[in-house]
Design goal:
single chain; 385 residues
Length: 385
């Protein structure tokens, strides 16, 4: 057991969110995440063994095992142990320490690996809230507390780490080096919370802020995203984006650092334009001005923004993609898609062609086309592993 603990202590961990910023209080929340989760897992040697001893009937719902980690299904999206008052029956009757590790660290239990680095992300099943003015040790999103739970868990075992989703990095770069860049950016965002505008922080993170501004003006213009959407002074949305940006970057870790900044800069304009419908003040636990709502909508829109971010360089696609055009049902969209894919197949940058092909279309068709073409196009030289 001591040798296993030593091995776990050696696994590097990267927390993909600012320390002491994300918080939740279950008793104040109406989302009831335990209703909506369809499974839970934990260490068979530790909490799960105790739970099975207390509730042997749960054995029959085991659905997966990876090393010491066993996963169980829960019926109808409701955990067996959720009491009538929506409190965790395990915690009420037996104490928090017997709860599966996944439940104890939830919602900081979205795991990835980058090389041999264990990456911890946020689970937006929970409507997390922000504590502006980082307060490590006083909120649930405390890096040290989360890491302490993980170090004692089987999630740090090699057999489990090997089963996690792998984050890709740009060709020729090392995962450890890229996560060092990410950690610096995360801490940069943390320092800016409550102090700076999001765009100011992005411009400070690049050696060429003018190039970033020029790209945003040009790419944003294709989608009717004007920089005038940004307010003159910082607001709640700036803090929201600063807190979410390190998590948003996980999904674009395969892009170079300057391209990641491009995606984030466009993401701000997307969110601010959307909020012209609902307003910038939260009116519910999951609307677009909350961490949960903003993250979900920006993640959904990311493929189109990623494609724009790499469009000024040669990209890769398959010539077969020309034969698999989406059935748009609109001749102009089909022709524009063909032009873009043909340009990509010839190894040429897409940006100039985007302006000539997309500007013939209404913005709604431009966005839909970019979203549907994104799976066919990637950075030149990238390979999937």
């Amino acid at each position: 057991m001591k040798s296993e603990t030593k091995k776990r202590d050696k696994v590097p961990i990267y927390m993909a969110f600012p320390d002491g910023v994300f918080h939740y209080v279950c008793r104040e929340c109406t989302m009831v995440c335990c209703y909506r989760s369809a499974e839970f897992d934990g260490s068979f040697r530790d909490q799960i063994a105790q739970l099975v001893q207390l509730y042997p009937a749960m054995e029959i719902t085991a659905i997966r095992r990876r090393g010491d980690v066993v996963k169980f299904a829960t019926p109808s999206g409701r955990c067996y142990f959720l009491d009538a008052d929506n409190r965790c029956g395990v915690e009420v009757r037996h104490g928090k320490e017997i709860k599966p590790v996944a439940c104890r660290v939830f919602p900081f239990n979205n795991y990835y690996r980058a090389g041999r680095i264990f990456v911890v992300g946020l689970n937006f099943l929970c409507p997390l809230k922000l504590e502006i003015g980082a307060a490590p040790g006083q909120v649930e999103g405390d890096h040290a507390r989360i890491e302490a739970h993980l170090r004692q868990s089987p999630y740090m075992d090699p057999s489990y780490i090997d089963s996690m989703r792998k984050l890709e990095v740009p060709p020729g770069l090392k995962a450890a080096d890229e996560l060092a860049v990410e950690a610096e950016f995360r801490d940069f965002c943390s320092e800016a919370l409550g102090q700076k505008q999001f765009v100011e922080t992005l411009r400070s993170a690049t050696a060429e802020p003018g190039e970033l501004d020029a790209f945003v003006a040009s790419a944003g213009g294709l989608l009717n995203l004007d920089v005038s959407l940004r307010p003159a002074t910082r607001d709640h949305i700036d803090d929201l984006l600063l807190a979410l940006a390190p998590m948003l970057r996980l999904n674009i870790l395969n892009l170079t650092a300057d391209k990641r900044l491009r995606v984030l800069a466009l993401s701000e304009l997307v969110l601010r334009r959307l909020l012209t419908i609902t307003g910038t003040q939260p009116i519910g636990p999951a609307d677009a001005s909350t961490p949960k709502g903003a993250f979900e909508i920006l993640t959904r829109m990311a493929p189109a923004l990623n494609l724009l971010a790499i469009a000024d360089q040669p990209v890769r696609t398959s010539k077969q993609a020309l034969k698999r055009l989406p059935p748009f049902g609109d001749a102009e969209m089909t022709f524009a898609a063909f032009e873009l894919l043909r340009t990509a197949a010839n190894g040429q940058p897409l940006f100039e062609r985007m302006h000539t092909s997309l500007e013939r279309l209404p913005v709604v068709d431009r966005m839909a086309l970019l979203m549907e073409l994104a799976p066919f196009v990637g950075q030149a030289g990238t390979t999937k592993t």
